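One example copied in:
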Amino acid sequence: MNQVNRKVRYQLYPSKKQSGRMTKMLRLHQRLYNACLEQRIHAYKDRSISLNYYDQAKELTALRKEDSQYREMNAQSEQVTLKRLELAYKQFFARVKK
């Protein structure tokens, strides 16, 4: 049976307020990704500890309690950001191993 692949494209037309909020959310996700990446690097260099998704997800819970900006965002989207970092790490080390 042949499967038909279809592509659906949605176009957003956000207001200035919505656009500003989306930009803010993007910046917070970028900051979270980069901070977690830096945390992994320093943990390995300084203490020879390898952090993984679960370690950082626990810390994300604490971060959400402390920082109102992250508390306002969807927790699952923040977890997806951590999963993307985990996937990037796994793929990097798979390439290094080859």
About this structure: Residues 18-97 form one domain. The helical segments are 16-47, 53-66, 68-72, 75-97.
